[in-house]
Amino acid sequence: MSNLVAKNITKLLGNPSQEILKNISLEIPAKQFVALTGKSGSGKSTLLYILSTLDNPTSGQLIIKEKNTASFDSNTLHQFRNEQVGFVFQFHYLLPELTALENVLMPARKMGIHVEKTKQAIELLEMFELSDKKNNLPKQMSGGQNQRVAIARALIMNPKFIFADEPTGNLDSTNSEKVFEILNQVNRDLGTTIVMVTHDVEMAAQTHRIIELKDGEVISDKLQREASKLGIEKNNRNSDK
């Protein structure tokens, strides 16, 4: 059963309106690591934001765990994002006045459970080789370290999904590899479904599935061999148009 289903997603922007996404339908099973690729302006980031519920389609449906997100009121949507979804962006967006540990705990603080989550936050920092940085402010850490803190923050609520928009786009090759390996580890060990926008061809090739967009349409949907290890069967809905 698919974790996430997009049906006939269309997105219009601007005045006069322009079609950014054109009638996109796809399904993403649980535990799959998906790379969204395509040139700048292809619509991949717009699709990511819609799949993550950070943006709404102009038309079409987004169904997550058999629930149509159009039926969510603002409170339900906020709770869903905080409990089920982790976000990682190109820029880490850490709060500069908070330490690494405090930044990791921010989603839990919103729910009033940051005290209970402190042990887990420390364990996440240890997992990402940042235990000695837990009391450091973002300005006292490197870009790669800050991005690892951002991933730890995305994981603190044990989300079922992580949506990442060019998570290594602002990093050098060494730190890019470290951040990607962390995402790969999270997918492999925790079974977290990951959807990642990337321009990095080599990185995309290491995911389970590559969905390529051009001019707002899916032009290729390829399942990689690695996905068979999870028993994920190929969905032919958009395969190799």
Commentary on this structure:
By secondary structure, the protein is an alpha/beta fold. The chain has a single domain, classed as Rossmann fold (3-Layer(aba) Sandwich). It has eight helices and ten strands. It has helices spanning 44-51, 74-84, 100-104, 106-110, 114-127, 143-155, 173-190, 201-204, and strands at 2-13, 18-29, 33-37, 59-64, 67-68, 85-88, 161-165, 193-197, 209-214, 217-223. Strands 6-7-8-3-9-10 form a six-stranded mixed sheet, sandwiched between helices. A four-stranded antiparallel sheet has the order 2-1-4-5, with helices on one face. Strand 9 (209-214) and strand 10 (217-223) form a beta hairpin. Helix 6 runs parallel beside helix 7 (173-190). The radius of gyration is 18 Å and the shape is globular. The two termini are 23 Å apart. Residues 230-241 have low confidence and may be disordered.
